[in-house]
Write a structure and sequence with these properties.
Layout: E1 9-13, H1 15-33, E2 39-45, H2 49-57, E3 63-71, E4 84-87, E5 97-105, H3 109-122, E6 126-134, E7 147-151, E8 157-158, E9 174-177
Parallel strand pairs: 2-3, 2-5, 5-6, 6-7
Antiparallel strand pairs: 1-9, 3-4, 8-9
Helix pairs in contact: 1-2
The structure holds inosinic acid and magnesium ion.
Amino acid sequence: MLDRKVEDLKILFTQEQIEQKTKELAEKINKDCGTNNELVLICVLKGSTMFCCDLAKHLKMPVEMEFIRVSSYGNAKTSSGNVQAIDLTLPNLEDKNVLIVEDIIDTGCTMEFLINILCRTHRPKNLKVVTFLNKKMARKVNIEPDYYGFDIDDKFVVGYGLDYEGYMRNLPYIGYFE
Ligand code: IMP
Ligand code: MG
C-alpha cells in the first residue's frame, strides 16, 4: 500500500501552466535549432515520457525520437547519485543534432552520466539538454541544462511523469507532499 495519497498533494504547477511552459520551450528550441535541421530527441525513461511527447508535438523540424532508460532513485525519495544504465540502445548519432529530454535535474548525476556516455560513444554534432524541472539548489555536480521549464525548491515532486514509488506519473499536474 502507498503511504501517500493523491488527495494530500499540494499543486505546484497546473495542467495549464505545464502546457504553456512546454509550448514556450518548444518555441525557443524551434528558434535556436532552426526548422530545417533534423533533431534527435532522447527521452529518458520513464520520467520524461509525458514532457517529451508534449514537447515533440510543438517542434517544427523533422524530429526523431529515441528512448533510453536509466535509474538513479530506486524507490527512495533522495537521489542515490548512483546511476544505473538499464537500456542505452541508440542508433548512430554521429553528426546529428541531439537533445536530451529530462523530466527533472536534481543532483545532476544522471545528466552528467548521460552527457559523458553520449559524447564519448556517439559523438553527436551538437548535444543539448532540456529539462522540464530544474532543482538548481540540489546540484552535486556542475551540470546546467540549455533549457528548463521551471526552477523549483529542493522538494520531492510528483505527476506529469514524475513518480512516487512507481505511482502518480499519470497526474496531469505537478504536486508535492507537505
Ligand atoms: P539526479 O541524478 O539526482 O539529477 O536525478 C535525476 C532523476 O531522479 C530524475 O530524472 C528523476 O527521475 C528523479 N527525481 C529527481 N527528483 C525527483 C522528484 O522530486 N520527484 C520524482 N523523481 C525525481
Ligand atoms: Mg528522469
